[in-house]
TrEMBL record, chain A:
Belongs to the RecR family. This is Recombination protein RecR. It comes from Actinospica acidithermotolerans. May play a role in DNA repair. It seems to be involved in an RecBC-independent recombinational process of DNA repair. It may act with RecF and RecO. PANTHER family: RECOMBINATION PROTEIN RECR. A zinc finger (C4-type) spans 56-71.
TrEMBL record, chain B:
The gene is recO. Belongs to the RecO family. GO terms for cellular component: bacterial nucleoid. It comes from the Bacteria. Involved in DNA repair and RecF pathway recombination. This is DNA repair protein RecO. It comes from Actinospica acidithermotolerans. GO terms for biological process: DNA recombination; double-strand break repair. Gene3D superfamilies: Nucleic acid-binding proteins (2.40.50.140), Recombination protein O, C-terminal domain (1.20.1440.120). InterPro entries: ARFGAP/RecO (IPR037278), DNA_rep/recomb_RecO_N (IPR022572), NA-bd_OB-fold (IPR012340), RecO (IPR003717), RecO_C (IPR042242). HAMAP family: RecO. NCBIfam families: reco. The keyword DNA damage applies.
Amino acid sequence: MYEGVVQDLIDELGRLPNIGPKSAQRIAFHLLQADPVDVKRLAETLLKVKETVRFCEVCGNVAAAERCRICLDPRRDASVLCVVEESKDVVAIEKTREFRGRYHVLGGALSPIEGIGPDELRVRELMARLADGVVTELILATDPNMEGEATASFLARMVKPLTADGSLRVTRLASGLPVGGDLEYADEVTLGRAFAGRRKIDG
Amino acid sequence: MSLHRDDGIVLRAQKLGEADRVITMLTRERGRLRLVAKGVRRTTSKFGARLEPFAHVDFQTFERENRALGMITQAETIAPYGGQVVGDYARYTAGTAMLETAERLTEEGEPALQQYLLLLGGLRALVGGEHAPGLVLDAFILRSLSIAGYAPSFRDCAGCGNEPDDGMAWRFFSLPAGGVVCPACKPGGAAVPQQATVDLLGALLAGEWESADASEPRHRREASGLVAAYLQWHLERGLRSLRLVERQ
């Protein structure tokens, strides 16, 4: 145990995700030895992020204002909506530079074992966004794991009435082999998915 | 330092650190275990997809003394029930409640072969699609409770063991008594479910699927309410997933 405020700092750092007592101690001593200007900047940023950053009222992504940068951008295609679990998925998809539509962040995935049902996610907001008929394609980009797949199939069922007249197309991100990998090392679940989602190639 | 090989059903997969997972598994030989699967969240993982909930796998662990959790070093799929469960929300929620029941009614490191075989049979019935997911779940919960030593009685009196007349069942249902009770044993506050509901509960416990499948939705609803209450009574805390089960 250290004295007073040093121990408080270690305790506070230890409450962060994936920071154990040893790591907390290491970070605390790094901060103690660091330049006061750097530490002040870090402290100010921490306060600022909590004060200014909020969630976009339209898509649920992290934003610096009421609406996020993507929702405000008129060049983005409003007819294509990509549903993701978390804000970090938006960043991952943006890095591909393949997608020019807009997003909807659910805030997680359906996980009954953790007590997370449709009411805990932004499903109602999604249905409200789809109601005006502007969106013609809904891309379900939840994680390719059990919870993500269940969420995708649940959402597909929810929007089914909207697809009946052909005004909305619902698609799911493809699953399959990683680029740069060897076929023989793929597990059977992934390889099976790759077969199920194979596409036509024009020679 | 030792290597173990066993079969198991993945009950839960929780994130750990950057790319790892803690896998809770109900195994054939050693009961419920918590194991670390390194790097399975990376897209390059060779067996991450095999360690999703509902998966029935043949796996190998590496365990060291003084270490709380063993490490999964290999996993091969025996049956990937997850793929068949996940496409149907009712099936997914019922299946998740089955996994949570199995987790709560077993002890870590205590062999539970009967619970393991019951869960395996339950998952097969669930993906088989012959019966409504809600019925499979209720039958599973009743039988799992029976194996755990909390077998309910749906015909003879749970208090004195008296048999009812003319092949009927007693109508009063009491959680503390452990099932239906005769008028003489009836404690205050006992529920009075419909006769068809009590028959349905008996059929689910005994595996008489023909009569269970023929039951009406209102009796199924009442039966699932009693099953949930009975489970909560014995677990002291309800299942998180039970509230979210979608009943048709």
